[in-house]
Amino acid sequence: MLSINNLHAGYYGKVKVLHGISLHVPKAKVVTLIGSNGAGKTTTMRAISGMIKPTDGEITMGEGNAAKRIDAMDSHKIARLGLAHSPEGRRVFATMSVTDNLLLGAFPRLTWARPKGDIAADLERAIELFPRLKERRNQLAGTLSGGEQQMLAMARAIMLNPDLVLLDEPSMGLAPILVDEVFRIIERLKNEGVTMLLVEQFAAAALNVADYGYVLENGRVAIHGPAEQLKNDPSVKAAYLGASH
Description:
The protein has about 240 residues and is an alpha/beta fold. The protein folds into two domains: about 1-80 and about 165-175 and about 195-245, 3-Layer(aba) Sandwich (Rossmann fold), CATH 3.40.50; about 85-160, no CATH class. It is built from ten helices and ten strands. It has helices spanning about 40-50, 75-80, 100-105, 105-110, 120-130, 145-160, 175-190, 205-210, 225-230, 235-240, and strands at about 1-10, 15-25, 30-35, 55-60, 70, 85, 165-170, 195-200, 210-215, 220-225. The strands form two sheets. A six-stranded mixed β-sheet has the order 6-7-8-3-9-10, with helices on both faces. A four-stranded antiparallel β-sheet has the order 2-1-4-5, with helices on one face. Helix 3 runs parallel beside helix 6 (about 145-160). One of its GO terms (molecular function) is ATP hydrolysis activity. One of its GO terms (biological process) is L-amino acid transport. Belongs to the ABC transporter superfamily. Pfam families: ABC_tran. This is Branched-chain amino acid transport ATP-binding protein LivF.
């Protein structure tokens, strides 16, 4: 579904952040990126979704003959191919209602850049999947709590009816009870066959829900393997799991 080969990326005027990482996200699987702050996790997500342009390497999305290189594409074109990004920091449209935020997630479908499908039914599904949003569907997004905004950002991504979802730090800044709820939702999406790449500060929780994991250190893949294997790896335990959720 998503393949990254020898990816190098950074930010204008700054040193490179990624130094040749490679990873693969199979269809209908959950893959997680874990690592310390500054390891390159969010930069990886931004490079995949077109928010920054890689300086070298390839990013390919799709299966078989339908696979396309996306590393030189703009973000809106990547979204049309079926990639949804729930970014770090939520970034909801504060002066718009919850419902309008969700409909913006379906914008490529409304413009026929992607198959339209039943948007009304998917809107109700999103509200049902994130029940905290149901009674707030007409409320301005900027008046929601942090946890509610995080759920709105995730629900907005799902409204694309995506082939692949990038979830960047979905539990950041949330109370423990809301962290548990976020991971229950991720588990449900996984059971529905949604393909996800997950960046998460709570490494243990991420590995519990993921099928496969990559550990980033200083912009490089230090170790990777099945999630269960990483959970039992002594070096991963010592560095990332001692105080994890």
